[in-house]
Design brief:
Elements lengths: L23 E5 L4 H14 L2 E8 L7 H10 L4 E6 L1 H14 L11 H19 L4 E3 L8 H12 L4 E3 L1 H4 L4 H10 L17 E5 L2 E5 L29 E8 L2 E5 L2 E2 L2 H14 L4 E7 L5 E7 L1 H17 L2 H19 L6 H14 L4 E8 L2 E8 L7 H4 L13 H8 L1 H10 L2
Parallel strand pairs: 1-2, 1-4, 2-3, 4-5
Antiparallel strand pairs: 6-7, 7-12, 8-9, 8-13, 9-10, 11-12, 13-14
């Protein structure tokens, strides 16, 4: 192996592993090229044992038995597969829904929500398997390294971290060569024939694609990037309305059928995807300073967040509705930035919980060729009175005769200031 593939001599952070001390490594293993090369590379470079952990957060089309077999075949001491879909939905997606979580102008944070859970499960497995170090496949340019390492350093100060992709300076070609040399199977889609594949990350809540032409901001999306959502031009000619029921901010039924969270999200995703809903072509400010472009497909989030937000607005007052989006934005920023364990998130969650006590009812969303639009609402807690809102007679709580007095006082300061400034 050439020199530049060796372990870096210098360590910057307290939690970075000292190569001399690394005996057994918990590797966050996806079964893909990077982490498969990593499995071998850690064994060779550190002389360490490798325990693999693969976390199922609902990424579609994954065969976990194949992944496990591959890890063991490549020499892993153990390979654990954890189905964390329920926990992900309950502990990460529900708070996100209650906070209408969206970063920038449309990223529903699926990756950012998943990373702290993956890292927490890695800590638990590392402790259970007697590992001293956790390895992950994140690059040095993304947000994911921040989310994973901040979680490990927070929850397990005794564990160290290695991030081989950040230091081994292997390009794609070299990784493939390394794989061939070490008997690591390489899928043809990972080979060089069709150029590099997109960099994909996905879970229950959505899917991201990066790389290739996506890095050219002027390049409109090519059709082959959409593997989850039907392209709107191919979506059905007939619109479909889905109804989502919420109880205290949590989605509990789809089209009247009560469902567990994971199943509800999966079914909602399938319906929305069929109608081309949930595509986002996003320019994003990463936490490490870079501005990048991502193509997202987040069909379930597109519908559920829209419905939740609508219902929340219906049951809240004007003052709550003015205030909460500020906190929602702060919540999304913290989570995007990898600060899942920051106390401020807990503080914000307490507010989200309190507001969501009222968020019960149902919302109908009409899906048609890439669009989702709220068309029906109902809630026992709606701060709404059809009789008051209608154009007909005064009565009950509302007196039209009181309006001129209200307007006079409400506009008082603005009128005075206008006069002063236009003397
Ligand atoms: N830009 C998104 C984020 O920072 C998606 C990242 C996807 N991660 C990946 N390793 N492909 O959350």
């Amino acid at each position: 192996m050439s020199r530049e593939h060796e372990i870096p001599a210098q360590r910057t952070a307290s939690y970075e592993a000292d190569p001399e001390q690394v005996r057994r490594v918990l590797l966050l293993y996806s079964g893909g090229l990077d982490t498969s090369v990593m499995l071998k590379w850690i064994g060779d470079s550190y002389g360490a044992e490798v325990v693999c952990l693969t976390v199922n957060l609902g990424q579609p089309g994954e065969d976990y038995e194949v992944i496990r077999a591959k890890a063991l075949q490549l020499g892993a001491l153990e390979c654990h597969v954890v189905d964390a879909r329920e926990q992900f939905a309950r502990e990460h997606l529900v708070p996100a829904i209650k906070a209408n979580a969206m970063y920038g102008s449309g990223y529903p944070l699926f990756t950012a929500l998943g990373r702290p859970l993956i890292a927490k499960l890695a800590v638990e497995q590392a402790r259970a398997s007697g590992c001293d170090t956790i390895a992950h496949g994140c690059t040095g340019k993304g947000n994911d390294q921040v989310r994973i390492e901040a979680t490990i350093a927070t929850l397990a100060p005794e564990l160290k971290v290695i991030a081989p992709v950040r230091s081994w300076q292997m390009g794609r070609e070299e990784e493939i060569a390394y794989a061939h040399e070490h008997g690591i199977p390489v899928k043809s889609s990972q080979g060089t024939e069709g150029g590099a594949p997109y960099s994909i990350d996905d879970n229950l809540w959505g899917r991201s694609s990066e790389g290739r032409w996506i890095e050219d901001l002027a390049h409109a999306p090519e059709d082959d990037v959409f593997q989850l959502v039907t392209r709107p031009e191919l979506a059905p000619q007939e619109a479909q309305t889905v109804t989502i029921d919420f109880e205290r901010g949590v989605p509990v039924a789809l089209d009247g059928e009560p469902l567990g969270l994971v199943e509800l999200i999966e079914r909602c995703a399938a319906i929305a995807a069929r109608h081309g809903v949930g595509i986002i072509d996003h320019i994003e400010d990463r936490i490490v300073g870079l501005k990048v472009r991502d193509v997202y497909e987040a069909p379930a989030a597109a519908v559920i967040l829209l419905a939740h937000q609508e219902l929340e607005r219906l049951v809240c007052t004007i003052h709550q509705n003015q205030f909460k989006p500020e906190l929602d934005r702060q919540w999304a920023y913290l989570v995007y930035a990898g600060l899942w364990w920051e106390p401020l998130r807990g503080d914000l969650d307490a507010y989200m919980e309190r507001v969501n006590e009222q968020v019960s009812g149902s919302i109908g969303v009409k899906l048609y060729k890439g669009h989702a639009r709220v068309v029906a609402r109902s809630s026992p807690n709606a701060v709404y009175d059809a009789a008051l809102a209608s154009f007909s007679q005064s009565g009950g709580l509302f007196s039209q005769a009181a309006s001129p007095g209200f307007i006079e006082l409400f506009s008082l300061q603005s009128r005075m200031a206008w006069r002063l400034r236009n003397r």
